[in-house]
Write a structure and sequence with these properties.
single chain; three-stranded mixed sheet; two-stranded parallel ribbon
Length: 348
């Protein structure tokens, strides 16, 4: 998320206007939709927090485990929506200059093991480098070309396979958020990423307190399970947004933010329910065109701009589409597309 170093320093966008005229860039055409609807932002903020707190409280206190399990799953989906609020705030697209929003969302980001300093650094790099043929792994899942894979050492290949393995995504609470987003930055530069230590302490403290007052089952249903669900879904959403059938990488001389947004970002087609839980982040090509568009205006921007309709490759959460995305492992420069390990080996 290439946002300002301080999201509160962002400038408001232009007022909504007419559709783009001839010669107007697609990025410029999205600017009218980058204007925040402040009342709606606050409604999303407070309603999401209220639902998260209510559902997780039910998961902690209701005596019947089937109800607790359902509340826990629902809580996990709500954590995804809460993370989208944090994501957008860090971009400066919602609730700029609000101390209340900053305090609450920074705490939430920490408890979800995405501390602000680490998240800002990694996501800024992601937005800056997304879609580039060289060094495309910066800020996201690693990605090697077929040539680089063939020249790689055995240890490099093992690490690469592990980093993109489905089990790594399935256990993202530990692999992606604990190890990569929190512990890694803390050990590399603890002075710069001191908030990672606070995030770890807060995360552990919540689990310990829930165990102390209600036993392990309370901690499991009220925090561990919903967080695990949210982390797994979040990690896969991030993976599929830039690892999908038809995804393109561009050499430096051809790269532009506009091309990368359309060719290297997917349109994840979700139903109305999952669109709500995921804050419409499935319109990822629109988000990468203009990161300051609030999540609740992404669909509006796509509907208003014909140039955004049918341009990005579309995928879904249907199992066959998930399998197709997971199978893609390497960028084949000769074929100009993603291939599986088996395809790369067959062409050797």
């Amino acid at each position: 998320m290439m946002g300002p170093a301080n999201p509160e320093d962002s400038e408001p966008a232009d007022e909504p206007g007419a559709k783009p005229r001839t010669g107007q860039t697609l990025v410029a055409a999205t600017k009218p939709f980058a204007r925040e609807l402040r009342a709606k932002s606050w409604w999303c903020f407070w309603s999401t927090l209220a639902i998260v707190c209510g559902v997780l409280t039910a998961a902690a206190l209701v005596p019947w485990w089937p109800v607790r399990a359902i509340a826990s799953i629902f809580g996990g989906l709500m954590m995804v929506r809460l993370f989208i609020l944090y994501h957008d705030y860090m971009h400066g697209s919602i609730l700029r200059r609000s101390r209340v929003a900053k305090l609450v969302l920074y705490v939430c980001g920490g408890l979800l093991l995405a501390p602000p300093s680490s998240w800002r650094k990694n996501h800024n790099l992601h937005h800056t480098n997304m879609g580039k043929l060289r060094d495309p792994q910066v800020g996201g899942f690693p990605l090697l070309t077929v040539t680089e894979w063939r020249d790689a050492s055995k240890w490099t290949r093992v690490r690469y396979r592990v980093s993109r393995h489905p089990l790594t995504i399935l256990t993202a609470a530990f692999t992606v958020f604990f190890l990569s987003m929190t512990l890694g930055p803390l050990t590399e530069n603890w002075r710069k990423h001191w908030d990672s230590l606070l995030a770890l302490l807060g995360h552990v403290a919540v689990i310990a307190l829930l165990c102390w007052f209600g036993g392990f089952a309370t901690a499991l249903f009220a925090f561990i399970l919903p967080y695990g669900i949210a982390a797994t879904l979040g990690a896969y959403l991030f993976f599929v947004q830039h690892n999908f059938v038809g995804m393109k990488l561009l050499p430096a001389e051809e790269w532009s933010a506009e091309k990368a947004a359309i060719l290297s970002s997917s349109h994840l087609d979700l139903g109305l329910v999952m669109r709500w839980f995921t804050g419409d982040i499935g319109y990822h090509h629109v988000h990468h065109l203009n990161r300051t568009i609030p999540f609740y205006r992404l669909a509006e921007a796509m509907q208003a701009l014909p140039e955004l309709q049918g341009t990005a490759k579309t995928t879904t959460l249907i199992p066959r589409d998930v399998v197709a995305c997971i199978r893609l492992a390497l960028w084949d420069e000769e074929k100009g597309r993603m291939v599986s390990y088996a395809e790369a080996a067959a062409d050797a």
